[in-house]
Write a structure and sequence with these properties.
By secondary structure, this protein is mainly alpha-helical. It has a domain of about 190 residues: Ribosomal Protein L15, Chain: K, domain 2, CATH 3.100.10. Keywords: Ribonucleoprotein, Ribosomal protein.
């Protein structure tokens, strides 16, 4: 075995320096790499952005392998079974009959009652001196979902034995604009000195109203006959009220829509519903677009002619 060589002092310092720096330079890229790997491992899709597709008959790992979710044997696996099939015996719809129906003309409205509105006014969450619209009701959390509009109901009205309203929970007059309103609620508000106006809304128009991009009730069809003078004074608008002026002065971007379906047009033309299109009715004209009112038919037919008998007739 050859003898070991002794290192000189300068060579020893150089060796120790390289041995101490080598591990540090080697671990530096490893730490950077582990950090990047940790970030990549935590990435994921937004919740609800990805739905796993059901793959039937692709092995047990898919969750729907082997029988593909049909079970073992029987009619359900080997053939087709009609809806509401009851195993061959008399179907339930024949035994008990068909109950209920799906009204395709109904709209989903958020209900709000008079007693809740009065409670919000007492708490200072709604200002009764200004018009109460969908925006005020939603921002004050009087309603939690605007849905396709708001319907005003009359809970809080005291009635007698004959179901006639005798007292209301309202303590002050209010001016409210909603999608629809019940007859007892309209009578209670007008008895207190307020006013009710029903206005056509859509989901998109309500969203713009909440974003303050559309005025809650001023539109082209909004005229003086529809009670706009009182609402304009309560809103703080003076002078001639037009849609163009309100949009330019208040900085609104979008206009309110008007109904296009016959059912909606007839509802908001009816003065009994306090519709904002009721001022369009002519004298003795009904709200219907198809049928004429009895007064209109009578006026169109003219006066009734009296029957004249000859002079030689007694009756």
């Amino acid at each position: 075995m050859p003898p070991r060589l002794q290192l000189l002092p300068f060579q020893w310092q150089r060796t120790t320096a390289t041995t101490t720096l080598a591990p540090l330079s080697f671990l530096l890229p490893l730490q950077q790499q582990s950090r990047n790997a940790h970030i990549l491992a935590s990435l994921s899709d937004t919740p609800g952005a990805y739905n796993k597709r059901i793959r039937r008959g692709r092995g047990p790992a898919s969750g729907k392998g082997k029988t593909s979710g049909r079970g073992h044997k029987g009619q359900g696996q080997h053939g087709k079974v009609p809806a509401r099939f009851n195993g061959g015996q008399t179907p339930e719809i024949i035994v008990h009959g068909e109950t209920g129906f799906n009204n395709v003309h109904s709209i989903d409205l958020a209900p709000v009652n008079l007693d809740r509105i009065q409670a919000w006014i007492d708490q200072g969450r709604i200002d009764p001196s200004r018009p109460i619209t969908v925006r005020e009701l939603a921002q004050s959390k009087c309603i939690h979902q605007t849905k396709e509009g708001v319907k005003l109901l009359g809970r809080g009205i005291e009635k007698d034995d004959h179901e006639v309203p005798v007292a209301s929970v309202l303590k002050q007059p209010i001016h409210i604009i909603v999608s629809r309103a019940s007859a007892p609620a309209i009578a209670a508000i007008e008895a207190a000195g307020g006013s009710v106006t029903t206005r056509f809304y859509t989901k998109s128009s309500i969203a713009r109203i909440l974003r303050r991009e559309t005025h809650p009730f001023v539109s082209t069809a909004w005229a003086k006959e529809a009670g706009s003078v009182e609402l304009a004074k309560a809103e703080g608008l003076e002078g001639e009220i037009t849609e163009a002026r309100v949009m330019s002065e208040m900085g609104f971007q979008y206009r309110l829509p008007d109904p296009t379906k016959r059912r909606d047009i007839e509802y908001y033309r009816d003065p009994a519903h306090r519709g904002y299109l009721s001022h369009l009715l002519k004298p003795m004209e009904g709200p219907s677009l198809f049928f004429r009112s009895p007064a209109e038919r009578k006026s169109a037919a003219g006066g009734r002619k009296e029957k004249t008998l000859p002079a030689n007739r007694l009756w």
